[in-house]
Amino acid sequence: MFDFLDIYPWLLPIVIFFGRIFDVSLGTLRIIFVSKGEKYIAPVIGFVEVFIWVVIISQILMRANDLVSYLSYAAGYASGNYIGILLEQRIAYGIVLCRIYTKENGNELISLLQKMKHGATLIHGTGSVDKVDIIETVIGRKEMKSIEKALTDFDPNIFYVVEDVRTKQNGIFAKRKNILRRWRPGK
Asked: How do the domains of the chain map onto residue ranges?
């Protein structure tokens, strides 16, 4: 399969480096999908991940006998972790609970979130210094950037925490954009 490496042995560290980037990045994504309960996506990613790993390891055991190959293996692993994190942030898969604490009027923030097509719950509380309004909303991770901007525009001193949520049921959620709408006008 990799007979060209016998002719061009200088390519081995490059193949090892990029192979590790792919397999470690896929490993990061697989872990995310496993934690979200995606029982159909995670095994497919795991299959590809392990296949790449076996191919790379076999090449190392057959041909690699120098420090450059070993360093490229380690560098590919480190780079794969970094790229895997970037991919995870880019796809922003899943849903989150955003818990917001503000000294401003919470009802106004609820109205703002409703205009953005997000349901929210208001709780009145007492903070360490003063009374606060606590607003909770469940949103898709991809929507978090627009929510963050709206929150800081509403109250520059706002405090919020974001937690991962595995499932949601029965609530007011923004409609998802359906990929089929592009090809099915009128639907």
From this structure: 4-91, 95-165
CA distance 90 to 117: 23
Question: Around Cβ 138, how many Cβ atoms within 10 Å?
Answer: 18
Taking only the tens place, the pLDDT of each residue in 21-79 is 999 999 999 998 888 888 899 999 999 999 999 988 888 777 767 888 889 999 999 99
Yes or no: domain 95-165 corresponds to CATH 3.40.1190.20:
no
Distance (Å) of CA 60 to CA 50, 68, 75, 128, 179:
15, 11, 14, 59, 42
**What 3-state DSSP class applies to 117?**
coil
Q: Is the model's pTM score more than 0.85?
A: no
